[in-house]
Specification:
With about 50 residues, this protein is mainly α. It contains four helices and no strands.
Length: about 50
């Protein structure tokens, strides 16, 4: 419940969400602070 409150979710919000949706929100929030050292270029996409 604490993490949901930190995300700004209310009990009413949670009633309409699955656990998977809540987990996705938590993961996305954790990724917001992540620093990635490499940015893909067009060449990377072409090679893919």
């Amino acid at each position: 419940m604490l993490r949901c409150t930190q995300l700004g979710l209310t009990r009413d919000d949670l009633a309409d969400m699955t656990m998977g949706m809540v987990y996705d929100l938590l993961i996305e929030r954790a990724n917001d602070n992540e620093q990635y050292s490499y940015r893909a270029t067009q060449q990377d996409f072409d090679n893919f």
